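Reviewer 2 asked us to include a model.

Predict the structure of this chain.
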Amino acid sequence: MYRLSDAGMDAPTLAERMARVIAALESRLGPFPYPSYGIAEAPDDIKGWYAASQQTFIVARASAFGYDHGNTPLWAHEASHAWWGNLISAEGEAGLMVSEALAQLGVLIALETTEGDDATARFLEFSRSGYNSLQSAAGYFHIWRQGGDKPLSELADDRWDHNLSDSKGMWVYHMLRHRVGDRVFFGVLRDIIQQRRGGAVSLADLRAFFLRASDDPGLAEFFAQWLDRAGAPVLDLDWWATRDPDGTRGVHLEIAQTQGGEPFTIDLEIGIELDTGERITRTIALADARHSIDVATGGGRPVRVELDPRRLVLMWRPAYGPRPEPTAD
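Predicted model (structure tokens):
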């Protein structure tokens, strides 16, 4: 750790945090490919850049260090390139989904290890200070509104493509991990590293690795809708409390997909808060443009309903800015 100033998180604390981050990455991906990893601070008066990463270290301007939270996402992303981009090269169309999006997955591993699930969810939604705000759910929907969205399997070097891989691409791996579970998810990534170390991997290769490793009959459809088409679910929710003649309370929900094109197929968690303080969670298989469901809540009256409370699905929310225009894709 090479520092020029004492701004932000002090060097010993940042070094200890990064040791934990790399240990967490190693526990999921295997040994770090290099004997060491360094972080160096450069003066802010060097214009035209923010940070530059090499195989065993990263150099960043002083402004990158001036955060009490330590700017963990920046260092974790660059450290993850030791596996994705250096040890394993990306090849073929949509190589950004191998080199960049998988390095961005390292940020999620780092945050859940050092700061917990709530901090990880906030980063997924909004990024954080010191990092690229476009690399988040809110950033992705901004790109969509700007006309820059495209299928992830078609990423190349257009204006928005890098940020698409680090926003929507990050979310796709986040969703895939929760769909297949950590054992399969990280097992596949370790297999790729072991079998292709020093070589190259394409997005098509990565998709094939997962399809061979998982017995999930819906996984091919998952990849098709999240990699081969643009967009994401834009949901409208209407709900009201119900009460049966016997006094049993419940809630009726009407959910509509309004993003245009074919409906997405998603397993959607619904969180229902009751006036008793109890919280009920139900998961529904959403596959149609419109879906109705009734949920019994016992003796409690529903006071609030939230879609996807654990942030497991990339979907538009009002906090992400104006609703994007429907797409035909």
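The longest helix spans residues 161-180. The radius of gyration is 21 Å. We have added this to the supplementary material.
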